[in-house]
């Protein structure tokens, strides 16, 4: 049975799509049910304004679903409201559909009436008289000229722009990259995963090595391997160097042995050595799961030094919860492991106090051969989010965090399984 569109007087007459990305989506009760990730449209011609079919929304578990515009009741500057009845099946793009953020940004276009040539950096939508949402205007940026960092920008009517429906073999990714850089790595990874293959390759080529490494760490293994295989060997090695050693080791284990060996040879010797060492451990043991780069300080460091290190935004909360105190050398494998300092204890002590004075040396560290069940039992017994791993000589090898444990304990498709039970009871069929 068709569902009537609910008209809300506060809905703006024109909405720019790039500003929608990341906005929360709420149900009628005010509970957040997801975030906007893209807009799905049906492009018929360069004269006829494309009809907006719906939103691509990210819901819990990082799943992407389709939200028809008939389910959208209000859009304002800070949020999107829906009827609350959503189909939780994973979004799958149809051949007749176009993703505005994923496919339309960075298209090369031409405005015959003014002679302007440039690339699309945003698109506006508005409601037509029949209350359908349509794409109405195109924001275009000319190439930079002379000493200007950015080219002139223009906003044109959809019908006045040529090139919007043409397929480009070498479409750029500047504006899409800008949108991805505003997202968390996990969110960016999901958007890249859903792009058409040729667009995904363009985006991967345009991402810098550090950002691509962050994204790769959030992708399933098969997507990691596919992306890495399309990079030239030198760049693949550079990206692996930017990844955390444990994630790089896991990815290497999924590559053909000869490919992994070749990439290790191309990596910087110190980075390659860390990865080789982690690859040597038996799968699903503490040694294989641990990171070799926790926060390590010497006994002469102060609490102020420790707090400065754990403020590093690149650390996960689990790794920032403990400081590992060791004798020289401080790179793993370290000198003798002395104990850990808990972040809560550090916050209660004067900054000038030596970190050695607040050590917790009461719990036994893990051994690298500890099984996944033993690691889980250890963290649960001591109420820890991370724990040290030491060798026979009591040298620190690394640390296992609860993040590492969950990555290895949960099934590969756990996100889909987590919401499968909801598919039977929520929403309507797309169509």
Tell me about this structure.
The protein has 431 residues and is of the alpha+beta class. It has four domains: 14-94, PRC-barrel domain (SH3 type barrels); 102-160, no CATH class; 208-280, Alpha Horseshoe (MgtE N-terminal fold), CATH 1.25.60.10; 296-409, Roll (CBS-domain). 32% of the residues lie in helices and 22% in strands. It is built from 17 helices and 17 strands. Strands 2, 3, 4, 5, 6, 7 and 8 form a seven-stranded mixed beta sheet that branches. Strands 1, 9, 10, 11 and 12 form a five-stranded antiparallel beta sheet that branches. Strands 13-14-15 form a three-stranded mixed beta sheet. The longest helix has 11 residues, at 269-279.
Characteristics:
431 residues, alpha+beta, SH3 type barrels, MgtE N-terminal fold, 4 domains, 7-stranded mixed beta sheet, 5-stranded antiparallel beta sheet, 17 helices, elongated, disordered N terminus
Concise synopsis of the structure shown:
Keywords: CBS domain. This protein has 431 residues and is α+β, with helices and mostly antiparallel strands.
Average pLDDT reading: 86
The largest sheet, given as strand count, sense and whether it forms a barrel, is: 7 strands, mixed
| Secondary-structure class | alpha+beta
CATH-level-4 superfamily name of the largest domain:
CBS-domain
The CATH class designation of the largest domain is Alpha Beta
Pick out the low-confidence regions.
1-10, 418-431
Annotated CATH architecture of the largest domain: Roll
Q: CA-to-CA gap between the ends?
A: 11 Å
